[in-house]
Amino acid sequence: MTDPLDEYRQKRDFARTPEPAAERTEGSGTTFVVHRHEARNLHYDLRLEHRGVLCSWAVPRGFSYDPTDKRLAVRTEDHPLAYEHFSGRIPKGQYGAGTMTIWDRGSYTLVKAADWDAAMSRGELKVVLRGRRLRGEWHLVRTQQGPNTWLLFKSRDVYAGPSRDSALGIDLAAATAATALPTDLAAMRWSAVRAPFRDPDWLFEMEFAGRRCFAERDGERAALRGVATTPPAVRDGLLALRCQRATLDGVLVALDGDARPCRTTLDRALAGATTVPVVYYAFDLLHWEEYDLRPLPLLDRKAALRALVPEVPGVLYVDHVIGNGPALLDAIAAAGLPAAIGKRGTSGYRSGPAPDWLRIEASAGAAPTTAAPAPPKAAAARSKPSNLGKVYWPAEGYTKGDLLAYYHAVADVLLPHLRDRPVHLNRFPDGIDGKSFYQREAKAGTPDWVRTVPIEHDGAPVPHHVIDDLETLLYVVNLGSIDLHPWLSRTHSLDAPDWAVLDLDPKTAPFAHVVRIARAAGRLLRGIGLRPLLKTSGRFGLHVFVPLQPGYTYDHSRMFVEAVARVLVRELPDIATVERLPDRREGKVYLDFLQNRRSQTVVPPYVVRPIRTASVSTPLTWDELEDHDLTPQRFTLQTTPARVATRGDLFRPALEDRQDLLPAIAALDDVLRQR
Ligand code: MN
Prior knowledge:
The protein is α+β, with helices and mostly antiparallel strands. Helix content is 21%, strand content 31%. The strands form seven sheets. Strands 1-2-3-4-9-8-7-6 form an eight-stranded antiparallel β-barrel.
């Protein structure tokens, strides 16, 4: 009998790859593991334990909980059981070169399965997975296209639903294992009352008048805690949650004749005195399956809750606004409702009054606004917005007023990236088709409340604008600025950049090539221990950022990014170039590392670009590169505020996750040597 690990062994040189040796071992018989494998093409390797080895399928597009979404799964060689715990970098030149990380792991059972061999020869395998991301029944079916070509899809069970690759869509590493639903529950409560405020670290939810209670689902049992009779629609809603077990926190609400939540109406409905519908508004998720989620950040718990709640009448998800308290309070006041709750996005769930929860009241003075997005009031006092009706984008019809309203809407996420940096302006007083001028110097006549910083240029100090607050932002936009161009270093350390930037500029090259290079850049940078960030340039390219710890100069960052660019050009010579002269680029994507210099600038996230589509430089997750519909023009002045409201600032790590280049430089050196 042949050894099932022969193929695994033959493909690898164990003197060079860190992967485990080809040995068969005894296991539980029920292990499954999924590796995220960033090889030349990103894919996921699903591995099921059987007879001492891991039977493997490569799934290029990953998993989907939508049962109609059938994914190609290519049967690959069996792996040793020890691979269950393997993660690391497989060096260049070795089979499967790239980074292998454990994406999910757990136990599985074969459905009706007495016989694995029969299922395999029939080419139809049904398994129930119990992992952190993958749950419930999955179906593997061999196609006619070849012995190794299979399809993988979700069976229709409680977990099935809209397309997503994880049951909850969040990382459960910080959750605690807990076999039973928690019994020690007491509600988290607000601890103080505050006026509306803006803070990108906080989210804001509407407060509902009703009855606060926990809701539990355990298999076929569903009930509200402390409520004598759970209304049938609420019970049906809980039984429709996309899980087996959960504890939710929320408010039971009934609406009065004016469609406002009303406690009296609720009491009458619960007593059976009226048939007004009762709805459970869920705003938190404390437990899921075998995990206590209370230690996780609130934003993760809410994302998980959103993934669990289906569209049914009895249970609704309470959405939130990130950062902009006043915007939600205006809406609340306009609706005649009393208050919002502000919650710190990173907070865990704690019982009792907590400083991470604040009540924010719609003050009597804040009269409901009826007008359309008016020019911001606060700024009007100082900078008097002018020519609001002037059309800046003739094709789309966007006006200067639209641009000011946009910047007002995203100010909370944009300003931290502008703060304390000299900025160059690019002014288009007559819109994108009119004359424009690039302006470094803050001219005489700049109001004294606009911060400027003198920077020596040709032997003389030249004042530069610094945009630290909303008023200054709206002031420079009112001057006709469309996009903004801050330095890569800050005013108190002009020679020490805190961002290293690789600009992937396609000019005439197709965007698909930019995506391929960005994938390779992400793979390379993660492989040498960095945590790079990605965003669209807002025009046609992509920007890769690495936030830097203090102590590096522009020479360091430029040489590092140049080395990265040259590795990428070597890897993808047909589509990437570092050729400075546009005529010599032969339609390839230009990898620009020269922005990493004193007095050069970069476009920060969330600024609008002066091009026809009014597209916005938008932070992306690396996985969004796998989205076949991705185009930078999808993110515009019109669509970006909604994305920011639900996803927050994906570029926040550019300010907080400052990284050490030295170990990365050493690791990059190793990579260069291997080639
Ligand atoms: Mn693989």
